[in-house]
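Before relying on records like the one below, remember that each one covers exactly one chain. Contacts with other chains, cofactors or solvent are not represented anywhere in the record.
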Amino acid sequence: MSLADASRTSLGDRANGAAAMERLADRLVSMAPPPLDLPHGAIVRQSPAVAAGLAASAAIARRADERARRSRRPILTMLVDSFVAACSFVPYSAVALALRLLMARVFFLDGQTKVDGLWLPVRVAELTRSYVTGFDFSVIVPTGVRPEIFSAFATQYPRLPVPPAIAAYAVSFAEFALPVLLVIGLGTRFAALGLLVISAMILGFVATDPLASVHLYWAALLAVLVTQGPGAVSFDHLIRRWKGH
């Protein structure tokens, strides 16, 4: 067979193939259902099966797109995101409980040095291999303020904007009641706010260098409790859940 005959045969095959495709297209068009003659403004509703299939396809497409974008991220970004995700496993309730106990201990022990009252000895013994030790949880239930505290407020804190006697009573009793509220998580935001006010007064009128004072760090921790709340391990959380039901 010559080259010209082969070329004519190839052209004929292509023409026959094109004609066959046109016939197939015409047949598919003839098999398609006619368009719906719907009134203007009519809404076509999909069947639940079709809607579920479209939603599943869209979800698969979104997941594939997210995986593709993740694969294009730098390694450093992936490491940072993994670290952030790992940190999120620590619940805020545990962090808030630790902050509440820490700040309650600091202010409660300071308040115990300012008050007089009923002494409640509470001592828990611990038996070890060689000796017996004890944890002292004794508490002074305040009924008054020690006399030397009044003189201390009058001489050491003269810049306070309130009279020394009022300041001595307010601080002494607040440092007993507010830490107890912090521990049990009842009225936590108000208790933390009260202790935050005490810290701010010390920073503004007592501390010689507020930026180097430990009260600045106490104020920062108390601000977390004021803004974020007590967490799930608290009476406040139980009360909110009870009210929600």
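The radius of gyration is 38 Å.
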